[in-house]
Design a protein that fits this description.
mainly alpha
């Protein structure tokens, strides 16, 4: 059976967006832009379950 690397690439992309969102949130908090901080935090909260779903459905650990 041929292995598919598309779920792995999607997972890496989502986790990279999560890191970027976290850095942006910290940066905005430092400069006291609290509205942007909350928006970046919500994006982080949305991206984490998306990464978890991609991991559960696409990346098969037991192969």
């Amino acid at each position: 059976m041929k292995r598919s690397y598309i779920p792995v690439a999607l997972l890496l992309a989502v986790l990279m967006l999560n890191i970027i969102s976290t850095q942006y949130m910290v940066h905005q908090y430092f400069y006291e832009n609290y509205t942007n901080t909350i928006v970046a935090g919500v994006i982080n909260v949305i991206l984490f379950p998306a990464a978890f779903l991609i991991y559960k459905k696409g990346v098969n650990v037991n192969d």
